[in-house]
Amino acid sequence: MIYNIIEIANTHGGSIDYLRGLIKEFEDFTEGYGMKFQPFKYDEIATPDYEWFEVYKKLYISKGDWAELIDYVSITKDVWIDVFDGYGIEIIRHNLNKIKGIKLQASILMNRNLLQSLSNLNMTEKKLIINISGYELSEIKERLSYINKLIKPQEILLEVGFQSYPTELMDAGVSKLKEIKAHFDNRIVFADHVDGSSEHAIWLPVIAAMLGVDVIEKHVMHSNLETEYDRFSSVKVDDYRKYIELQKKYISLLDQSFINDREKVYLEKSIQLPILKANKNKGSTVSLEDLSYKRTGKNGLNTKQLEELLMDFHILTTDKRAGEPLYVEDFKKATIATVIACRLKSTRLPKKALLPIGNLSSIELCLKNALKFRNVNHTILATSSMEEDRDLERYCYREDVIFHKGDPDDVIQRYLDIVRMLKVDVIIRATGDCPYLSNDICQFLLKAHFVSGADYTCGVGEAVGTSVEIINAAALERVKSYFPRADYSEYMTWYFQNNPEYFKVNKVKLPEKWCRDYRLTLDYEEDLSLFNTIEKYFSQNNLEYTLEALFKFLDQNPEVAGINKHLRLRYKSDPELIRLLDEVTKIRS
Hints:
Blueprint (H helix, E strand, L loop, with lengths): L2 E5 L8 H10 L7 E5 L4 H4 L7 H7 L3 H12 L3 E6 L2 H9 L6 E4 L7 H8 L7 E5 L5 H15 L3 E6 L16 H7 L4 E5 L7 H11 L4 E5 L17 H4 L20 H10 L2 E4 L14 E4 L8 H9 L2 E3 L14 E3 L2 E6 L14 E2 L2 E2 H9 L7 E7 L17 E5 L4 H12 L3 E6 L7 H14 L3 E5 L8 E4 H10 L9 H6 L7 E5 L15 H16 L6 H10 L1 H4 L8 H4 L1 H10 L5
Parallel strand pairs: 1-2, 1-8, 2-3, 3-4, 4-5, 5-6, 6-7, 7-8, 13-16, 13-18, 16-17, 19-21
Antiparallel strand pairs: 9-10, 11-12, 14-15, 18-20, 19-20
Helix pairs in contact: 1-4, 14-16
């Protein structure tokens, strides 16, 4: 049995009397029928510059009137609600026990704020229709999974059909039905939007029903009262009664393309665009958490386009104000540099950077593995301008490694000097005493950094010496503005993690396969012994370093991993140093 939804849309023009009269005309349709309303508030669904904003104000109906109308309809049939904004959520909340189900238009399926608000309601006994116009099959699958997990409705139905005032017959979406049924187990809703004055308005929904849809949604209007809005695809009660027979001539509609050009235009024009919640500075990344979603009269990036830019490591090229949409010209591909700080002043293990690990010096092995990092424009060995560190220039491993000499003690200044020269936007920070840096971890943190819109990103759970830190150059400049002389900045981490109120700090739990308690940093003879044992194993087995291969060896040979297990990191174990760093790296307003 086909379930029928009588769609009121905006035919009422804001008139309560019109709605009462229309409900009365359709009161004979009871069992197996529902009636759907579209409550929204003008300033929540759109911005004032949107072309329909003034019409939306006219269509506004108060909460009290909606409650009366819902009560009236629920006497004879089910009540459905189209939700567009927070006002619609409130209507649902106050009338939830009388509502059969909720519908989400295609234009709001990416509105995370609205979906989150809907998830706060108890939807376990409610049905949910999602309109999938303009979405490819892979996108439908992703949205279906996300919404089902978030909102947890009793059932999700997929709806085909979009409104184009009116929608032409070829655009009705009949050709999608077979493919949707083949890919999804959900029941299907067919929304009929063809010209209400044509014969197709009677027969098309019948054809859809015969093709296997479970629910028919059809627009209606009052038989006698003037209808100013949404009349294009609406039928009067007498015509509504007629759509009960089949016409084979509509079978040819199955050959139409899955998404037509007009449908794409519909989604492009109606989809809610991401808009900044707060000001964002040039050089920063943008997180999805920085956004709200609204229809706007301006053309900006949609959610998918923005996500693609962020996943491709783009940053802002200009300052942006709250309330503005984002444009592709606001972004550029970030210039990313790996900067490895290294000196030869170690007292515990003198000139440790030059000590041999296998066939290479320690610093060369570090550089070799850092050069495996993808999505990097420059690899820099950053040392001091002191005479004692000059020898490092002969240990750059490869000629494309940039050798930079800078401030001996202020490592932040040393970084900024080369970062400014090369116009670097994002820094991958590492130190020269870590010969087993992991590209896998680096790429994981890079993506997490850009998607989160962080100033600073680090991993949690890694084996010491395998991970990196990701830092926006603009954020490092801000650190420098607070600390004109940062003589403890060899401990650069503290300047960010000790000031979360000034910087967006993103600590990312790494996948378990990359987490161990091994010590893979060079500071003592035991560390050097461990590393040479590792390199001997790699050489004898003709293996190139990967984190997976290294962990496999150490996991299977705990006596090797135990060579330096008793050693501790001073900046994690020395209470006096920790106290000092907490004090000298704290920003005082």
